[in-house]
Amino acid sequence: MNNVTGEKGILVAPSILSADFTRLKEALDLIKNSGGDWVHVDVMDGHYVPNLTIGPPVIESIRGATEMFMDVHLMVVEPDRLVPSFIQAGADMITVHAEACTHLNRTLQCIREAGIKAGIALNPATSLSMLNYSWDAVDMILLMTVNPGFGGQSYIPQMTGKIRELREMIQMKNPDILLEIDGGISTENIAEVTAAGANVIVTGSSFFGAADPARYVRELRELAEVF
Ligand code: DX5
Ligand code: ZN
Asked: Would the pTM count as exceeding 0.85?
């Protein structure tokens, strides 16, 4: 049992990217009532990724509408410019892409100094060696298991080996660091990715597309192979 994920084994973080944005409050309530642990919020700027989503005002509205842990995934260039606004808006965790930061450790420090959690995201083609000098500065590593930008893509099978490699590194450096995976996760591959070492599971299209999202979350937990 991990100190952070507790008895649940895995944390399930539904992504509102696949929700109906005209009915966000209903989506947040659905996440809570379906047994989701976190709300995953995808921020895209149309530059770092070829898609554009939401910014601090929406994050602030979400904050006012739910007490759930808000996991904010920034897919933006120069995240330093925006981090203070997202802190102000009420994020509980901010994850930045290592590839997008000029001074990664400074950005992480700025997030942590605000009293919230800091994460590093890595694209599928980015080497784990990017993490070598940031182990003490981070609470979570987010491995992209699709190329970022859109919900509903297929899991990249080569990522299972990368999850396994990262799990080994985390066990050596600091087992409390969370390993989140994002993209193409469903009941089809949850056993594989959790057996490899993932313990925070982002799920967008499969959660919001499920006939019974509560049952879907239960199945994810049942099928998860907690290491
Ligand atoms: C993709 C986003 C994901 C996305 C996952 O760039 O970071 O969080 O919402 O969606 P699914 O689960 O549909 O792949
Ligand atoms: Zn995401």
From this structure: yes
